[in-house]
Amino acid sequence: MTEAEASAGGLPVQRGTMLRAGLLGGAILAVVAAGAWLGEREEVASPLERFQRLGPAGAAAALKAELAQNFPPGTPVTPLLQRLQGLGLACNPPTAERAGWDCGLAFRTEGQRSVLLRASIAVAGDRILGIETAAESRN
Prior knowledge:
The chain is of the alpha+beta class. The chain contains four helices and four strands; from the N terminus they run H-H-H-H-E-E-E-E.
């Protein structure tokens, strides 16, 4: 470092260091950009999209079939509720007027119709007694 650089507050680096640092930074940026561009994939469809494409009646039937297969009567209700909440349904616990869990979700179909998808779970304690599903379309 020369006296003029020291008195001016210059950095104590060797000549060309900033150039090499800039080139290295640019190379890292180029590699990251190329990796992002080449690694681009299509978005993974959400689990709910499958039901949205089926329309109201198909969505209710497909949801009931999936739930009945994976959560037969007598199994704990908690994994079923977690699955429904993972799909985006909001679940309300049993009350004095209602003996089971009620879950529901409003969504739009590809035709832009509004659909309310519901699942009602009859329970005894923490065990599943039965599952009913319904869907109603609103324009």
